[in-house]
Amino acid sequence: xxxxxxxxxxxxxxxxxxxxxxxxxxxxxxxxxxxxxxxxxxxxxxxxxxxxxxxxxxxxxxxxxxxxxxxxxxxxxxxxxxxxxxxxxxxxxxxxxxxxxxxxxxxxxxxxxxxxxxxxxxxxxxxxxxxxxxxxxxxxxxxxxxxxxxxxxxxxxxxxxxxxxxxxxxxxxxxxxxxxxxxxxxxxxxxxxxxxxxxxxxxxxxxxxxxxxxxxxxxxxxxxxxxxxxxxxxxxxxxxxxxxxxxxxxxxxxxxxxxxxxxxxxxxxxxxxxxxxxxxxxxxxxxxxxxxxxxxxxxxxxxxxxxxxxxxxxxxxxxxxxxxxxxxxxxxxxxxxxxxxxxxxxxxxxxxxxxxxxxxxxxxxxxxxxxxxxxxxxxxxxxxxxxxxxxxxxxxxxxxxxxxxxxxxxxxxxxxxxxxxxxxxxxxxxxxxxxxxxxxxxxxxxxxxxxx
Length: 452
Ligand SMILES: [Zn+2]
What we know:
The chain is an alpha+beta fold. It folds into 3 domains: about 10-75 and about 155-340, Bira Bifunctional Protein, Domain 2 (BirA Bifunctional Protein, domain 2), CATH 3.30.930; about 90-145, no CATH class; about 360-450, 3-Layer(aba) Sandwich (Rossmann fold), CATH 3.40.50. Helices cover about 35% and strands about 30% of the residues. It contains 14 helices and 26 strands. The chain has a 7-stranded mixed sheet. It has a 5-stranded mixed sheet with strand order 23-22-24-25-26, sandwiched between helices. A 3-stranded antiparallel sheet has the order 4-11-10. The chain is globular, with a radius of gyration of 27 Å. The structure holds zinc ion. Zinc ion binds near residues 99 and 117. Zinc ion (ZN) binds near residues 94, 112 and 117.
Protein backbone atom coordinates (compact mmCIF):
# COMPACT_ATOMS: atom_id res chain seq x y z
CA UNK A 1 0.00 0.00 0.00
CA UNK A 2 2.75 2.45 0.98
CA UNK A 3 5.32 3.33 -1.60
CA UNK A 4 8.62 2.39 0.01
CA UNK A 5 10.49 5.09 -1.87
CA UNK A 6 8.24 7.83 -0.70
CA UNK A 7 10.17 9.85 1.85
CA UNK A 8 9.00 10.43 5.39
CA UNK A 9 8.08 14.06 4.80
CA UNK A 10 5.86 13.17 1.83
CA UNK A 11 4.18 10.49 3.92
CA UNK A 12 3.49 12.94 6.75
CA UNK A 13 2.13 15.56 4.33
CA UNK A 14 -0.08 12.94 2.73
CA UNK A 15 -1.35 11.72 6.12
CA UNK A 16 -2.06 15.32 7.13
CA UNK A 17 -4.25 15.82 4.09
CA UNK A 18 -5.96 12.41 4.19
CA UNK A 19 -6.94 12.69 7.86
CA UNK A 20 -7.67 16.42 8.08
CA UNK A 21 -4.64 17.84 9.88
CA UNK A 22 -3.45 20.25 7.18
CA UNK A 23 -4.75 20.99 3.66
CA UNK A 24 -3.09 23.01 0.91
CA UNK A 25 -4.59 26.54 1.11
CA UNK A 26 -7.14 27.50 -1.59
CA UNK A 27 -6.61 24.07 -3.11
CA UNK A 28 -9.55 24.16 -5.55
CA UNK A 29 -7.93 27.22 -7.15
CA UNK A 30 -4.59 25.49 -7.48
CA UNK A 31 -3.29 26.43 -4.04
CA UNK A 32 -1.85 29.81 -3.11
CA UNK A 33 1.64 31.01 -2.27
CA UNK A 34 2.59 28.11 -0.02
CA UNK A 35 -0.38 28.70 2.30
CA UNK A 36 -1.82 25.86 4.37
CA UNK A 37 -5.13 25.40 6.19
CA UNK A 38 -5.47 23.47 9.43
CA UNK A 39 -8.32 20.95 9.13
CA UNK A 40 -10.65 19.56 11.83
CA UNK A 41 -8.05 17.45 13.67
CA UNK A 42 -5.16 19.81 12.89
CA UNK A 43 -6.86 22.72 14.62
CA UNK A 44 -7.42 20.54 17.72
CA UNK A 45 -3.74 19.59 17.81
CA UNK A 46 -2.66 23.20 17.31
CA UNK A 47 -5.10 24.56 19.91
CA UNK A 48 -3.95 21.93 22.43
CA UNK A 49 -0.35 23.07 21.91
CA UNK A 50 -1.23 26.75 22.34
CA UNK A 51 -3.35 26.07 25.43
CA UNK A 52 -0.62 23.98 27.05
CA UNK A 53 1.88 26.74 26.39
CA UNK A 54 -0.40 29.42 27.85
CA UNK A 55 -1.11 27.27 30.90
CA UNK A 56 2.57 26.51 31.52
CA UNK A 57 4.03 29.96 30.96
CA UNK A 58 1.20 32.33 31.86
CA UNK A 59 -1.45 30.74 34.08
CA UNK A 60 0.88 28.68 36.23
CA UNK A 61 3.49 31.39 36.77
CA UNK A 62 3.28 34.49 38.93
CA UNK A 63 5.92 36.36 36.97
CA UNK A 64 4.45 36.27 33.43
CA UNK A 65 1.26 37.91 32.11
CA UNK A 66 -0.28 37.77 28.67
CA UNK A 67 -1.50 40.24 26.05
CA UNK A 68 -3.19 39.94 22.67
CA UNK A 69 -2.24 42.92 20.50
CA UNK A 70 -3.37 44.24 17.11
CA UNK A 71 -1.83 42.72 13.99
CA UNK A 72 -1.45 46.11 12.31
CA UNK A 73 0.41 48.58 14.50
CA UNK A 74 1.43 52.22 14.04
CA UNK A 75 4.23 52.22 11.41
CA UNK A 76 6.38 54.21 13.86
CA UNK A 77 6.76 50.92 15.77
CA UNK A 78 8.63 49.45 12.80
CA UNK A 79 10.71 52.56 12.45
CA UNK A 80 11.83 52.35 16.09
CA UNK A 81 12.44 48.60 15.93
CA UNK A 82 14.61 48.95 12.84
CA UNK A 83 12.36 46.77 10.66
CA UNK A 84 11.66 49.52 8.12
CA UNK A 85 15.35 50.11 7.55
CA UNK A 86 16.85 46.65 7.83
CA UNK A 87 14.24 43.86 7.67
CA UNK A 88 15.08 42.91 4.13
CA UNK A 89 16.63 40.34 1.82
CA UNK A 90 18.92 41.19 -1.09
CA UNK A 91 17.10 40.38 -4.34
CA UNK A 92 17.97 40.44 -8.01
CA UNK A 93 15.47 40.77 -10.84
CA UNK A 94 15.59 38.90 -14.14
CA UNK A 95 16.02 41.50 -16.89
CA UNK A 96 13.86 39.49 -19.31
CA UNK A 97 10.83 38.48 -17.22
CA UNK A 98 11.22 40.56 -14.02
CA UNK A 99 10.94 37.57 -11.72
CA UNK A 100 12.80 38.18 -8.45
CA UNK A 101 15.22 35.89 -6.68
CA UNK A 102 17.41 35.87 -3.62
CA UNK A 103 20.82 36.79 -4.87
CA UNK A 104 22.76 34.47 -2.59
CA UNK A 105 22.26 31.31 -4.64
CA UNK A 106 23.82 31.31 -8.13
CA UNK A 107 22.34 27.85 -8.89
CA UNK A 108 18.79 29.17 -8.63
CA UNK A 109 19.66 31.96 -11.09
CA UNK A 110 21.29 29.56 -13.52
CA UNK A 111 18.31 27.15 -13.32
CA UNK A 112 15.94 30.02 -14.03
CA UNK A 113 17.83 31.03 -17.15
CA UNK A 114 18.19 27.43 -18.36
CA UNK A 115 14.46 26.79 -17.96
CA UNK A 116 12.92 30.09 -18.94
CA UNK A 117 15.42 31.69 -21.28
CA UNK A 118 17.52 28.89 -22.81
CA UNK A 119 18.21 31.06 -25.87
CA UNK A 120 20.54 33.24 -23.77
CA UNK A 121 22.79 30.31 -22.90
CA UNK A 122 25.88 29.95 -25.00
CA UNK A 123 28.61 27.35 -25.03
CA UNK A 124 32.21 28.51 -24.82
CA UNK A 125 34.92 26.99 -27.04
CA UNK A 126 35.86 24.41 -24.41
CA UNK A 127 32.24 23.30 -24.00
CA UNK A 128 31.34 25.10 -20.76
CA UNK A 129 27.89 26.63 -20.60
CA UNK A 130 27.63 30.33 -19.92
CA UNK A 131 24.87 32.86 -19.81
CA UNK A 132 25.45 35.42 -22.51
CA UNK A 133 24.01 38.91 -22.76
CA UNK A 134 24.21 42.00 -20.65
CA UNK A 135 24.75 42.00 -16.89
CA UNK A 136 24.38 38.22 -16.57
CA UNK A 137 20.64 38.58 -17.21
CA UNK A 138 19.92 39.99 -13.73
CA UNK A 139 19.89 43.40 -12.06
CA UNK A 140 22.26 44.27 -9.24
CA UNK A 141 20.98 43.06 -5.84
CA UNK A 142 18.43 45.40 -4.27
CA UNK A 143 17.12 45.26 -0.70
CA UNK A 144 13.55 43.99 -0.62
CA UNK A 145 11.65 44.59 2.64
CA UNK A 146 9.96 41.47 3.96
CA UNK A 147 7.06 43.27 5.63
CA UNK A 148 3.57 43.01 4.12
CA UNK A 149 2.40 46.47 3.21
CA UNK A 150 -1.21 47.60 3.24
CA UNK A 151 -3.23 50.83 3.33
CA UNK A 152 -5.41 52.07 6.17
CA UNK A 153 -8.63 53.62 4.89
CA UNK A 154 -9.83 53.97 1.31
CA UNK A 155 -6.97 56.04 -0.13
CA UNK A 156 -3.97 54.14 -1.36
CA UNK A 157 -1.49 56.90 -0.54
CA UNK A 158 1.91 56.89 1.04
CA UNK A 159 0.53 58.63 4.15
CA UNK A 160 -1.80 55.68 4.76
CA UNK A 161 0.77 52.90 4.46
CA UNK A 162 0.81 50.38 7.29
CA UNK A 163 2.31 46.94 7.77
CA UNK A 164 1.16 43.58 9.03
CA UNK A 165 3.41 42.81 11.97
CA UNK A 166 6.46 40.74 11.00
CA UNK A 167 6.83 39.50 14.60
CA UNK A 168 4.79 39.47 17.80
CA UNK A 169 7.61 40.85 19.95
CA UNK A 170 7.20 44.59 19.42
CA UNK A 171 3.72 44.72 20.96
CA UNK A 172 5.15 43.44 24.25
CA UNK A 173 7.66 46.30 24.25
CA UNK A 174 5.16 48.95 23.22
CA UNK A 175 2.68 47.81 25.89
CA UNK A 176 5.39 47.53 28.57
CA UNK A 177 4.28 50.52 30.65
CA UNK A 178 0.56 49.76 30.35
CA UNK A 179 1.22 46.24 31.60
CA UNK A 180 3.33 47.56 34.49
CA UNK A 181 0.71 50.07 35.54
CA UNK A 182 -2.15 47.59 35.48
CA UNK A 183 -0.38 44.62 37.09
CA UNK A 184 2.17 46.34 39.36
CA UNK A 185 4.71 43.65 38.50
CA UNK A 186 8.32 44.11 39.59
CA UNK A 187 11.38 42.92 37.70
CA UNK A 188 12.03 40.25 36.72
CA UNK A 189 8.77 39.60 34.92
CA UNK A 190 7.60 38.64 31.46
CA UNK A 191 4.91 39.48 28.91
CA UNK A 192 3.65 36.63 26.74
CA UNK A 193 1.71 36.60 23.50
CA UNK A 194 0.46 34.07 20.97
CA UNK A 195 -0.43 35.38 17.56
CA UNK A 196 0.09 35.56 13.86
CA UNK A 197 2.93 37.31 12.09
CA UNK A 198 3.54 37.92 8.38
CA UNK A 199 6.71 37.91 6.30
CA UNK A 200 6.84 38.24 2.55
CA UNK A 201 9.36 35.41 2.21
CA UNK A 202 10.77 34.95 -1.27
CA UNK A 203 11.32 31.24 -0.85
CA UNK A 204 8.86 29.68 1.58
CA UNK A 205 8.75 25.92 1.73
CA UNK A 206 8.99 22.58 3.46
CA UNK A 207 5.27 22.27 4.17
CA UNK A 208 4.28 24.34 7.23
CA UNK A 209 7.92 24.97 8.19
CA UNK A 210 8.31 28.30 6.40
CA UNK A 211 5.18 30.16 5.34
CA UNK A 212 4.39 33.82 4.74
CA UNK A 213 1.72 33.78 7.42
CA UNK A 214 2.63 31.98 10.63
CA UNK A 215 1.93 31.90 14.33
CA UNK A 216 4.32 32.61 17.18
CA UNK A 217 4.33 32.00 20.92
CA UNK A 218 6.68 34.50 22.44
CA UNK A 219 7.80 35.89 25.80
CA UNK A 220 9.72 39.07 26.50
CA UNK A 221 11.25 38.47 29.90
CA UNK A 222 12.38 41.75 31.48
CA UNK A 223 15.29 41.68 33.90
CA UNK A 224 17.07 44.35 35.96
CA UNK A 225 20.01 46.12 34.37
CA UNK A 226 22.84 43.58 34.78
CA UNK A 227 26.02 44.81 36.45
CA UNK A 228 27.93 41.64 35.58
CA UNK A 229 27.50 39.05 32.80
CA UNK A 230 26.49 36.40 35.36
CA UNK A 231 23.37 38.44 36.11
CA UNK A 232 21.79 37.90 32.70
CA UNK A 233 23.42 34.52 32.05
CA UNK A 234 21.55 33.02 35.02
CA UNK A 235 18.20 34.02 33.48
CA UNK A 236 19.33 32.86 30.04
CA UNK A 237 20.34 29.39 31.30
CA UNK A 238 17.02 29.03 33.11
CA UNK A 239 15.20 29.66 29.83
CA UNK A 240 17.26 27.03 28.03
CA UNK A 241 15.99 24.52 30.62
CA UNK A 242 12.43 25.80 30.25
CA UNK A 243 12.52 25.26 26.50
CA UNK A 244 13.63 21.66 26.86
CA UNK A 245 10.98 21.10 29.55
CA UNK A 246 8.39 22.39 27.10
CA UNK A 247 9.57 20.10 24.28
CA UNK A 248 9.23 17.09 26.57
CA UNK A 249 5.72 18.16 27.60
CA UNK A 250 4.42 18.17 24.03
CA UNK A 251 6.31 15.07 22.93
CA UNK A 252 9.05 16.53 20.75
CA UNK A 253 11.89 14.01 20.54
CA UNK A 254 14.71 15.94 22.26
CA UNK A 255 17.30 13.44 20.96
CA UNK A 256 16.71 15.17 17.64
CA UNK A 257 17.24 18.66 19.05
CA UNK A 258 20.59 20.42 19.23
CA UNK A 259 21.64 23.89 20.30
CA UNK A 260 23.28 26.11 17.75
CA UNK A 261 25.17 28.88 19.48
CA UNK A 262 24.98 31.75 16.98
CA UNK A 263 28.59 32.95 16.48
CA UNK A 264 29.41 36.41 17.86
CA UNK A 265 30.01 37.92 14.42
CA UNK A 266 26.62 36.72 13.12
CA UNK A 267 24.56 38.05 16.03
CA UNK A 268 21.97 40.75 15.39
CA UNK A 269 23.47 44.09 16.44
CA UNK A 270 21.35 44.26 19.61
CA UNK A 271 21.93 40.68 20.73
CA UNK A 272 24.66 39.58 23.09
CA UNK A 273 23.83 35.91 22.84
CA UNK A 274 21.44 33.81 20.73
CA UNK A 275 20.78 30.08 20.67
CA UNK A 276 18.84 28.41 17.87
CA UNK A 277 17.26 25.14 18.94
CA UNK A 278 17.46 22.97 15.84
CA UNK A 279 15.34 19.92 15.14
CA UNK A 280 16.27 17.15 12.71
CA UNK A 281 13.29 17.40 10.38
CA UNK A 282 13.08 14.84 7.53
CA UNK A 283 14.29 17.65 5.20
CA UNK A 284 17.28 18.51 7.38
CA UNK A 285 18.30 20.15 10.62
CA UNK A 286 16.44 23.44 10.91
CA UNK A 287 15.60 26.08 13.47
CA UNK A 288 12.69 25.11 15.70
CA UNK A 289 12.93 27.71 18.50
CA UNK A 290 15.14 30.63 19.42
CA UNK A 291 16.41 32.26 22.59
CA UNK A 292 18.06 35.68 22.55
CA UNK A 293 19.43 38.15 25.05
CA UNK A 294 18.45 41.48 23.47
CA UNK A 295 20.02 43.79 26.10
CA UNK A 296 18.06 47.03 26.64
CA UNK A 297 17.85 47.74 22.89
CA UNK A 298 14.06 47.50 22.53
CA UNK A 299 12.78 49.49 25.49
CA UNK A 300 15.46 52.11 24.93
CA UNK A 301 14.17 52.65 21.38
CA UNK A 302 10.50 52.82 22.31
CA UNK A 303 10.83 54.76 25.58
CA UNK A 304 13.78 57.01 24.78
CA UNK A 305 12.65 59.92 26.96
CA UNK A 306 11.04 57.91 29.74
CA UNK A 307 13.13 55.12 31.17
CA UNK A 308 11.82 52.85 33.88
CA UNK A 309 12.06 53.41 37.63
CA UNK A 310 11.46 50.56 40.03
CA UNK A 311 11.03 53.00 42.95
CA UNK A 312 9.95 56.62 42.77
CA UNK A 313 13.33 57.85 44.01
CA UNK A 314 15.37 55.07 42.38
CA UNK A 315 17.69 55.11 39.40
CA UNK A 316 16.09 55.35 35.95
CA UNK A 317 17.08 52.67 33.42
CA UNK A 318 15.75 50.49 30.59
CA UNK A 319 15.14 46.88 31.62
CA UNK A 320 17.06 44.25 29.68
CA UNK A 321 15.27 41.46 27.84
CA UNK A 322 15.62 37.71 27.44
CA UNK A 323 13.43 36.54 24.55
CA UNK A 324 12.38 32.91 24.09
CA UNK A 325 10.43 32.35 20.84
CA UNK A 326 8.44 29.34 19.72
CA UNK A 327 6.92 28.88 16.28
CA UNK A 328 3.46 27.34 16.62
CA UNK A 329 3.48 25.76 13.15
CA UNK A 330 7.02 24.45 13.64
CA UNK A 331 5.92 22.96 16.95
CA UNK A 332 3.04 21.20 15.20
CA UNK A 333 5.46 19.89 12.57
CA UNK A 334 8.08 18.69 15.09
CA UNK A 335 5.36 17.04 17.19
CA UNK A 336 4.01 15.24 14.09
CA UNK A 337 7.50 14.16 12.97
CA UNK A 338 8.34 12.90 16.49
CA UNK A 339 5.06 10.96 16.75
CA UNK A 340 5.00 9.41 13.26
CA UNK A 341 5.71 5.66 13.38
CA UNK A 342 5.30 2.79 10.97
CA UNK A 343 4.75 -0.52 12.75
CA UNK A 344 4.18 -3.53 10.53
CA UNK A 345 1.23 -2.60 8.33
CA UNK A 346 -0.06 0.19 10.50
CA UNK A 347 0.84 3.85 10.62
CA UNK A 348 0.47 5.37 14.05
CA UNK A 349 0.91 8.85 15.48
CA UNK A 350 2.18 8.26 19.00
CA UNK A 351 1.11 11.71 20.14
CA UNK A 352 1.29 12.62 23.78
CA UNK A 353 -2.34 12.36 24.99
CA UNK A 354 -2.12 16.01 26.07
CA UNK A 355 -1.83 17.17 22.46
CA UNK A 356 -3.81 14.41 20.69
CA UNK A 357 -6.84 15.84 18.81
CA UNK A 358 -9.11 13.20 20.36
CA UNK A 359 -8.43 11.44 23.66
CA UNK A 360 -10.83 8.58 23.02
CA UNK A 361 -13.03 7.19 20.22
CA UNK A 362 -16.29 5.28 20.72
CA UNK A 363 -17.61 2.64 18.27
CA UNK A 364 -20.71 0.48 18.13
CA UNK A 365 -19.48 -2.91 16.84
CA UNK A 366 -22.11 -2.83 14.06
CA UNK A 367 -23.91 0.27 12.91
CA UNK A 368 -27.08 -1.52 11.80
CA UNK A 369 -27.87 -2.83 15.31
CA UNK A 370 -29.88 -0.06 17.03
CA UNK A 371 -29.33 -1.49 20.54
CA UNK A 372 -25.53 -1.30 20.08
CA UNK A 373 -25.67 2.17 18.55
CA UNK A 374 -27.90 3.43 21.35
CA UNK A 375 -25.61 2.11 24.08
CA UNK A 376 -22.51 3.47 22.32
CA UNK A 377 -24.16 6.89 21.90
CA UNK A 378 -24.89 7.00 25.64
CA UNK A 379 -21.24 6.32 26.42
CA UNK A 380 -20.07 8.80 23.79
CA UNK A 381 -22.31 11.57 25.15
CA UNK A 382 -21.11 10.87 28.67
CA UNK A 383 -17.38 10.83 27.81
CA UNK A 384 -17.71 14.03 25.77
CA UNK A 385 -18.30 15.94 29.01
CA UNK A 386 -14.72 15.19 30.10
CA UNK A 387 -12.71 14.30 27.00
CA UNK A 388 -12.53 15.34 23.37
CA UNK A 389 -14.23 12.23 22.00
CA UNK A 390 -14.58 10.87 18.46
CA UNK A 391 -17.47 8.82 17.11
CA UNK A 392 -16.95 6.27 14.36
CA UNK A 393 -19.41 3.72 12.99
CA UNK A 394 -18.04 3.37 9.46
CA UNK A 395 -16.69 0.10 8.09
CA UNK A 396 -15.37 -2.56 10.46
CA UNK A 397 -13.54 -2.20 13.75
CA UNK A 398 -10.15 -2.89 12.13
CA UNK A 399 -10.59 0.05 9.76
CA UNK A 400 -11.66 2.30 12.60
CA UNK A 401 -8.57 1.37 14.63
CA UNK A 402 -6.45 2.13 11.57
CA UNK A 403 -8.07 5.55 11.19
CA UNK A 404 -7.78 6.45 14.89
CA UNK A 405 -4.11 5.32 14.95
CA UNK A 406 -3.40 7.69 12.11
CA UNK A 407 -4.77 10.67 14.03
CA UNK A 408 -3.15 9.55 17.29
CA UNK A 409 -6.25 8.79 19.41
CA UNK A 410 -4.86 7.10 22.57
CA UNK A 411 -7.93 4.90 23.33
CA UNK A 412 -10.76 3.25 21.41
CA UNK A 413 -13.89 1.95 23.12
CA UNK A 414 -16.03 -0.70 21.38
CA UNK A 415 -19.59 -1.57 22.39
CA UNK A 416 -20.39 -5.18 21.37
CA UNK A 417 -23.20 -7.69 21.98
CA UNK A 418 -21.70 -8.77 25.32
CA UNK A 419 -21.89 -5.14 26.46
CA UNK A 420 -25.69 -5.41 26.51
CA UNK A 421 -25.45 -8.11 29.19
CA UNK A 422 -22.25 -7.48 31.15
CA UNK A 423 -22.32 -3.64 30.98
CA UNK A 424 -18.66 -3.63 29.98
CA UNK A 425 -16.78 -2.46 26.88
CA UNK A 426 -13.52 -3.29 25.14
CA UNK A 427 -10.88 -0.59 25.53
CA UNK A 428 -7.98 -0.75 23.12
CA UNK A 429 -4.67 1.04 23.79
CA UNK A 430 -3.14 2.81 20.76
CA UNK A 431 0.49 2.14 21.66
CA UNK A 432 0.37 -1.45 22.95
CA UNK A 433 -2.71 -2.48 20.90
CA UNK A 434 -3.74 -4.44 24.02
CA UNK A 435 -7.45 -4.74 24.73
CA UNK A 436 -9.05 -4.66 28.15
CA UNK A 437 -12.61 -5.30 29.27
CA UNK A 438 -13.77 -2.39 31.43
CA UNK A 439 -17.10 -1.87 33.24
CA UNK A 440 -19.00 1.05 31.72
CA UNK A 441 -19.49 2.52 35.20
CA UNK A 442 -15.69 2.55 35.71
CA UNK A 443 -14.79 3.76 32.21
CA UNK A 444 -14.53 7.46 32.92
CA UNK A 445 -12.20 6.97 35.91
CA UNK A 446 -10.16 4.42 33.96
CA UNK A 447 -9.56 6.93 31.14
CA UNK A 448 -8.90 9.80 33.55
CA UNK A 449 -6.17 7.74 35.21
CA UNK A 450 -4.64 6.67 31.89
CA UNK A 451 -4.76 10.15 30.35
CA UNK A 452 -3.28 11.91 33.37
ZN1 LIG B 1 13.46 35.48 -16.39
